[in-house]
Design a protein that fits this description.
alpha/beta, Rossmann fold, 7-stranded parallel beta sheet, globular
């Protein structure tokens, strides 16, 4: 439960090894969160010292994005460890390589299942719990890649487009329940997952994404962009003629 002044006390991270997800959790711990559950395949150990030295108790649970039948159980296990969930961060996914996906359609389908359908089952399981509690926020890591899908990563981008739409619809379904959804649209973020990708303009660090999330949770925002300049930029890009859009490399 949130404490007497409304600060987040409990956090569940779906995708317990995500660098961006862990940066968000650390930011929330610095703001007062004291119980953290890291959910990942095979469990996830906390980064050395980063969370426990800040005073948080850290737990680990099993979570397989590709096993939707187990997602409700994962949420229930987290609740059993820390009680009500104040914030759930949905940060799992794979980036992959577009050329490899085109050479191996089956691998593309598996990646799309993780990047979209896994979030559907996990998101609905979380929403059911938050609705039952009557409070809590689900933070969904979308991407500008899904705002307008580009040639160089359209398998990944199309899944993010689906996820973004799902998150917005889920937010509407929770309206009036006391629970809410915060959609996060980062641009290029240099992490281990993106190490094979050429840098893009207007990058953001995991810490900057975490700061945007913390600010959005405090303000009651429904969507945040990281960096913020991407919001007006993509408003224009949505209107760009298809022939010109097709020529963009990034």
């Amino acid at each position: 439960m949130r404490d007497s002044v409304g600060r987040v006390r409990t956090v569940l991270l779906l995708g317990g090894r995500s660098e961006i997800g862990l940066a968000i959790v650390e930011r929330l711990v610095r703001d007062g969160a004291r119980e953290v559950v890291l959910a990942a395949r095979g469990g996830a150990e906390p980064p050395p010292g980063a969370l426990t030295e800040l005073g948080a108790s850290v737990y680990s649970v099993e979570f397989d994005a590709g096993d939707p039948d187990a997602h409700t159980g994962t949420v229930a296990e987290a609740v059993g460890l820390v009680g009500d969930l104040d914030v759930v961060v949905d940060a799992f996914g794979v980036l992959g390589d577009q050329a490899a996906y085109e050479a191996d359609p089956a691998s593309a389908a598996r990646a799309a299942a993780v990047n979209y359908t896994g979030h559907v089952s996990a998101g609905l399981a979380v929403a059911a719990r938050l609705r039952e509690q009557g409070h809590g926020a689900l933070v969904v890591l979308s991407s500008v890649a899904g705002v307008r899908v580009r040639r160089f990563n359209y398998v990944y981008g199309s899944a993010k487009a689906g996820l973004d739409g799902f998150a917005q619809g889920l937010a509407d379904s929770l309206h009036g329940s006391g629970a809410r959804v915060l959609v996060v649209r980062p641009g290029y973020v240099p992490t281990r997952m993106s190490a094979h990708v050429d840098p893009a303009p207007f990058p953001a660090t995991p810490g900057q994404v975490a700061e945007a999330v913390a600010s959005g949770l405090r303000s009651g925002a429904t969507t945040v962009w990281a960096p913020r300049v991407l919001r007006p930029l993509f408003a224009g890009m949505r209107l760009m003629p298809r022939a010109l859009w097709r020529r963009l490399r990034r």
